[in-house]
Structure formats: C-alpha cells, structure tokens
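Mods, move this if it's the wrong board.
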Amino acid sequence: MKTTLELLSEHGFHGTPISLIAQHAGVGAGTIYRYFSNKEELINELFKAIKRDIIKAMLHDYREEGTYKERFKHLWRNMLRFFMDRPKDFQFIEQYRYAPYMSNLTREESFMILSPIMMFFIESKRAKAMKDLPLYTIIALLYGPIVSLLKQHIDNNQTLTNERIDQAVEACWDAVRYRQSD
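Not the wrong board. Structure tokens:
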C-alpha cells in the first residue's frame, strides 16, 4: 500500500499500472492480484486505510472530559498535524475521494470509520455547544480551512506556525459554535 501511495503521488492513477506497483514493491503482480481483484480495489483499500490512520491520529490523547471547545480543537489540530506529517496521504485523499472508481461501499465504510467524529458533532449539537447544522455542512466548514492551509503549507512553502494553527482552529470553532444571541 505504501508503494501504491508513493507511485500514485508521482505518476497519477493512469500512470501507475499494477505491474509498476509490483516492481517497486518487490513482488510479482500475481501476488497483488491474490489480495486485490484490480487496481481500483487496491486504491479503495488504501483510501480506507488512510481514513483509519486519520481517525487514530485525531483521537490520539483525546479526552471525553474536556469542554466541547477543547475537544473540538484537539480533534481539528490532530487532523491538521497528521496531514502536515503525511502530505502524500493528504494529496491522495484529496485527489481520489471523488474519483469515479471509488466505490459507494468505500464511501459508506469511510463514513463509518469517521463515526467517532460524527458522534462528537451530534453530541455537540444536542448539547447546544455547536450550531444545529447538517453534518455535511459542519464538515465543509471545518475541513475546507484544513485543505486550504495544507495546500499553502505543502505547495507554497508557507510554514504553518503554532500561532497560525491556533488562529485557524479558533476561527473554525467560531464558525460552528452555538451562540444564544444568534
């Protein structure tokens, strides 16, 4: 899977045949086909594996006892730092999440993998800590800034300092937090 990620980031989907993956992984193509029926299945499995790694990173040192704001900031920062440390994973997720060969099953499984985060959003909405918006709206409001910051960081060599990260997470929280005066 690591070899697949590396080659896809260098050559793209069409420039990365199974034979090239096998060659760089030091295995026969038949070995890959023993585990995956085709390249699309391999990519779908890679996608799910990265999603599992993201959740594991987001939940690292997560404490249920904190305030909703503290917990939100923890999850958001951990996701950003995960992608800062693993830019190829970020680029893969961004490039392939809407690709036509991503199966509906993979998308559904991906949603299930993300369920601990979704449960946090639901719990926050019920507690009136977060606005009562559809989950996909909340995700868009929170993930969009992560994507933009990471692209600046990766593509333009804009260093994401702790101060910039703190400003961004604070702004994202402000975007979704419940305000009684609204």
